[in-house]
UniProtKB/TrEMBL annotation:
PROSITE patterns noted in UniProt: THIOREDOXIN_2
GO terms, molecular function: thioredoxin peroxidase activity
Residue ranges occupied by any Thioredoxin domain in the UniProt entry: 3-177
Gene Ontology terms: biological process: cell redox homeostasis; cellular response to stress; hydrogen peroxide catabolic process; response to oxidative stress
Annotated protein name in UniProt: Thioredoxin peroxidase
Native source species: Xiashengella succiniciproducens
Source organism, top-level taxon: Bacteria
Pfam families in the record: 1-cysPrx_C, AhpC-TSA
Positions annotated as active site in the UniProt record: C51 (cysteine sulfenic acid (-soh) intermediate)
Family from the record: Belongs to the peroxiredoxin family. AhpC/Prx1 subfamily.
């Protein structure tokens, strides 16, 4: 598994569904550089079980992300047409109607491969024919990208394991706290908590208070 933290987020242009139903041709995260932070997350498949709970959970907290100047973007290896249909389907019928943040279509699996979350890989069999080993879908990868386009946090879950949206928000808060105050964030830090200076004196002072 590649570690992208500290590196430029892989660039791409792909079809996506935005605003709950508008298909666009050349969606790119580059549009946010210099303007917004990005929480970019992968999920395995449309019309499944854990995936809608995550996507709806992100939508439920979208105002909190937006208040922090964060764009939330999701991606799977499904087509833009599958995304569109899922977005038009009522929640009681297994859909995600009401979700407004972008869903990127990665049918060629190149984006998932670039972020190293693809649950399989292309290979050749003994006859020389190209085959795909594994699952042609993405693990539950999540990447926090700063306004300079640099990955500052990543986490990857196996397919059965849903993520914590609150943890994604906490990491946004931690990054922004560090940028604004120059202090680092200790274990279990939450917005409103004290940071600590990255010196031995600062650590001693923090531990003495806690």
């Amino acid at each position: 598994m590649a570690v992208l933290v500290g590196k430029k987020a892989p660039s791409f242009m792909a079809k996506a569904v935005i605003n709950g139903g508008e298909i666009v041709e050349n969606f790119s995260l580059d549009q946010y550089i210099g303007k917004k932070y990005v929480v970019f997350f992968f999920y395995p498949k449309d019309f499944t079980f854990v995936c809608p709970t995550e996507i709806i959970a992100f939508q439920d907290k979208i105002a909190e992300f937006e208040s922090r100047n964060v764009a939330v973007v999701a991606c799977s290896t499904d087509s833009e047409f599958s995304h569109w249909k899922w977005l038009q389907t009522e929640k009681k019928e297994g859909g995600i109607k009401g979700v407004k943040f972008p869903l990127v279509a990665d049918g060629a699996m190149t984006i998932a491969d670039a972020y190293d979350v693809l649950a399989g890989e292309y290979d050749y069999n003994e006859e020389g024919a190209m085959i795909f080993n594994g699952e042609p879908a993405a693990y539950r990868g999540l990447f926090l990208i700063d306004k300079n386009g640099i990955v500052r946090h990543q986490v990857v879950n196996d397919m059965p394991l849903g993520r914590s949206v609150d943890e994604a928000l906490r990491m946004v808060d931690a990054l922004q706290f560090f940028e604004e105050n120059g202090e680092v964030c200790p274990a279990n830090w939450h917005k409103g908590s004290e940071g600590l200076k990255a010196t031995q004196e600062g650590i001693s002072e923090y531990l003495g208070k806690n």
